[in-house]
Amino acid sequence: MSKSTAAETERATLDGDENGRTRLFDGEPKTIQLMLGAGESIPAHKHPGRDIVFFLRSGAVDLTLGDETLSLSPGDIVRFDGDQDISPAAAADSEALLVLAASSE
């Protein structure tokens, strides 16, 4: 009898919590639901050694990456290097899904 090496299937629901950031799964890759109210922002910070995918589900976010600011609309997906300064600012109530994976380099 052989033992299965497949990872267990995990499931999460995008409900959010009071602080606006919910880690959806334990382990890697780190998967976060981010909810920001209109006018809210997160100060510039870095995620060294990570590749990040930012998927805006709803709202409007100005995402500053280093010296560049991208205005995102629902459905926009951005992939970027976490070694640069990152600062999302919500122009409207917004919800995003972020995946932070260990950099392959």
TrEMBL record:
Residues 1-25 are annotated as: Disordered. InterPro entries: Cupin_2, RmlC-like_jellyroll, RmlC_Cupin_sf. Residues 8-25 have a biased composition (Basic and acidic residues). Residues 36-94 form the Cupin type-2 domain. This is Cupin. It comes from Haloarcula rubripromontorii.
